[in-house]
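User: quick one
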Amino acid sequence: MAENSNNKTEKIISLCKRRGFVYPASEIYGGFANAFDYGPLGSQLKLNLKNEWWKRFVVERDDIVGMDSAIIQNPKVWEASGHIGSFTDPLVECKKCHKRFREDHVQEIKAKFNTDANAETGSRIKSGMTDGEKEMLVCASGGEHDFAEAKNFNLMFKTFIGVTEDSTSTAYLRPETAQGMFINFLNVTQSSRVKIPFGIGQIGKAFRNEITPGNFTFRTREFEQAEIEYFVEPSLDESKKWFTYWLARWKEFFTDFGIRDENLTIRAHDKSELSHYSAGTSDIEYDFPFGMSELAGVAQRTKFDLEQHSKHSGIDQKYFDEVNGKKYIPYVVEPTMGVDRAMLAFLVDAYDESDGKDGREIGEVTLRLHPKLAPIKVAVFPLMKKEGMPELAHDIIADLRQAGIATFYDESGSIGRRYRRQDEIGTPFCLTVDFDSAKDKSVTVRDRDTMKQERIKIAELKKYFVEKNI
Ligand code: GAP
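Assistant: Done. Structure below.
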């Protein structure tokens, strides 16, 4: 299983690089571990994903407003939130090679491969282990690692503000977007006329000095989150009610945009896993090729954050509930997701290699992305580079672009080859201008998934594509 799974991951990484979805960062300088750059198609796919999220959870709802807070905040924010004190991983350092690993990951690998039993020096390696797993068990200087006692390591990236570099100028890159919403709770309630229950939504970069990043864009040190802080009346019953509601809405977002339900699982955290702020968290896990792993989550943060900010700032964060005349600090339910992980899951789920029974060659790849997510919606081909076909194709493109439809022009190679190039990047429709188009004012539109072709009047194309929900 491990071999097939790694194989699929490798194929997706290769497709992403070759077709301009995701490149290794700083490649011309030899790369930069676990950092990635999104190329022309990847940046568009990611933008489409974020736009659909924003539309659904902010624009189309009366009870949620959006915001965009600073990445570097006053360090007191992170003292109050508990990130300076508690946002740590226990690390073990090898006294011989000085490499550091997460202690829990070393234990997990040992348990997974049962390597403690009769392990001779250097003989822990088992087939199916990834390079990262091997590295955790065997020291580069030979034999086993000689680990020192575990120490806690803070995951926040530090930086300095201004010219001096000391503790008075230390600041942090945010490890979650959430706090930007908590510290603006009063601003939002005072400026937006929102009434509890209501939420604040935000999409933005977060940074964590992860010890063991990996699995392509799944775990990186710089990533994007899409989060909602949903404020409710302060009772565990209310919190649980909204927790259930948000878990369903969150999962729906993935299934509505194409992820197969059978590839998603909801897993409740046990007590030992809960973050320092949580009274209950469930993860939505996706069946990635490298195993079932967290894609998104919903947490009950109770009044932890607002209470902490009240204490640390000295500014009362209470809300006045006009309906029942009470003043209180609300409870918070937090649906959160990683945008990069979501994009990876959408790519993995969409990746389809033909078995040769659908009219394609065996092994040909179709990326069955939801049309709303696909970076290009319509590829436009002139059948030949003559008799006005390229000119008509460009006129059609100009018209579709005016309607906000992302198009791509391709005149090289056979039509079959052009279809294959678009299938591989997930373009839902290809449109061919042929010898008859100028006369019958029509073109042939081919559907990526059904491979059916239809003759459509040029004047009706915009309406046709809008109805296709692109
Ligand atoms: N505000 C709550 C919070 O940050 P989290 O579970 O630590 O909770 C939320 O992170 C989401 O962010 C995760 O479900 C995951 O999708 C994404 N995420 C977390 N760490 C990540 C990393 N190192 N690389 C990519 N995505 C990450």
